[in-house]
Design a protein that fits this description.
The structure is a single chain. The protein is of the alpha+beta class. The protein has a domain of 144 residues: 2-Layer Sandwich (Muramoyl-pentapeptide Carboxypeptidase, domain 2), CATH 3.30.1380.10. Helices cover 33% and strands 19% of the residues. The protein is built from nine helices and 14 strands. Strands 8, 10, 11, 12, 13 and 14 form a six-stranded mixed β-sheet that branches. Strand 11 and strand 12 form a beta hairpin. Helix 5 runs antiparallel to helix 7. It is elongated and about 65 Å long. The chain binds 2-acetamido-2-deoxy-beta-D-glucopyranose.
Length: 267
C-alpha cells in the first residue's frame, strides 16, 4: 500500500514538473500536431518531446461557436476544392492559401500539395541581365515581363545588370510546413531583384547607385522608375540595389498565395 502511495506521489511530482506544464496550465494539450486539428490554434515551445509535439490551445465556447459559424457560412471555396479550413498554425501537408475561408486572416485553406507541387519559377538570363558569380536568376512568371523591360533598359543605357539576389527561400519549419511570413518582402515571391551595374564608366555598386554620379546608371534607374517599377533607393530606408514591382502593397492577397505556393514547392 505504501509503495503504491510513493508511486502515486512520484507520478504526481513528475506530472507537475514536466515541461508540458506551460501548455496544460493554460488549458491546452500536448499532441503530435500532425494528427489533430486545433481550432484554438497550435503553439510551439510549450511541450516536451520532439518538434511535432505541440500545444493544441484550448478552444473555449466562443471559439467553438465561431469555428462552426465560419464553417457553415464561408468555407465552401476551400472545401469544394478538397481543402480544409483551419488556423494556419495547424499542420498542413500541402499548402495554405488565403481568401477561401471564413474568419480571421489566419484561418486559411489547407489543400494537398498534389494540386500544385511543382516549383513555378522561371530562370531569366540574357547578355545584359545575369547572375553574379554564376547565380541562377529565378523569378515568378508574373515578374518575367518586368525582367524583359529591365533587359531593354539595360541595352538602351549601355549597362549590364548583375543580379546578386532574386527569389529567396524562407518560411519552412523542420516538418516541411510553410510558416507564416516574418516579412512580406517581394523577394519571397520572386517579384524583386538586387543588382549592381556594370557600366562603361566602371562597376556601380550600392553606394554608386545611390550617389547618382554614374550617368549610365542614372539612365537605367530613370527608365526603371518611369516604367512603374520601384527602385529601392527611393525607399524610406534606402536599398539602392533593389528593384521590385510593389506586389506586396498593390495585391497583398496575391502576394500571400504566391508565398505559400513558392515557399512550399521551390526547395
Ligand atoms: C514590401 O516589399 C519591400 C521589398 O521587398 C519591403 O522592403 C517592404 O518592407 C515590404 N512592405 C510591406 C508592407 O510588407
Amino acid at each position: 500500500m505504501l509503495s503504491y502511495l510513493v508511486l502515486f506521489i512520484g507520478l504526481l511530482v513528475h506530472g507537475v514538473a514536466s515541461s508540458d506544464y506551460a501548455c496544460t496550465s493554460q488549458g491546452g494539450s500536448c499532441v503530435d500536431y500532425r494528427y489533430f486539428v486545433c481550432n484554438g490554434g497550435v503553439e510551439t515551445g510549450l511541450c516536451d518531446g520532439d518538434s511535432n509535439r505541440r500545444c493544441c490551445l484550448k478552444c473555449d465556447t466562443t471559439c467553438v461557436s465561431n469555428s462552426e459559424n465560419w464553417a457553415s457560412c464561408c468555407d465552401s471555396a476551400c472545401t469544394s476544392s478538397g481543402g480544409t479550413c483551419k488556423d494556419n498554425s495547424n499542420y498542413c501537408s500541402g499548402r495554405y492559401s488565403s481568401g477561401k475561408c471564413g474568419g480571421p486572416s489566419e484561418r486559411q485553406c489547407c489543400s494537398s500539395s498534389t494540386s500544385s507541387g511543382s516549383c513555378n519559377l522561371v530562370t531569366y538570363s540574357t547578355a545584359n541581365v545575369y547572375g553574379y558569380n554564376g547565380l541562377t536568376v529565378q523569378v515568378e512568371p508574373g515578374f518575367k515581363s518586368n525582367m524583359v523591360d529591365i533587359n531593354s533598359f539595360a541595352i538602351s543605357c549601355g549597362v549590364e545588370v548583375v543580379v546578386t539576389h532574386a527569389f529567396r527561400e524562407e518560411g519552412q519549419d523542420l516538418g516541411g510546413t510553410v510558416v507564416p511570413p516574418a516579412s512580406n518582402s517581394n523577394h519571397l515571391v520572386g517579384h524583386a531583384i538586387d543588382m549592381n551595374l556594370d557600366t562603361p564608366s566602371g562597376f556601380c555598386n550600392s553606394d554608386c547607385l545611390y550617389a547618382k554620379y554614374n550617368s549610365y546608371a542614372n539612365c537605367f534607374l530613370n527608365k526603371v522608375t518611369s516604367s512603374g517599377l520601384r527602385w529601392g533607393g527611393d525607399f524610406y530606408s534606402p536599398d539602392p540595389v533593389h528593384i521590385d514591382d510593389g506586389l506586396n502593397l498593390s495585391s497583398p492577397s496575391q502576394w500571400d498565395s504566391l508565398y505559400y505556393d513558392l515557399q512550399a514547392n521551390c526547395y
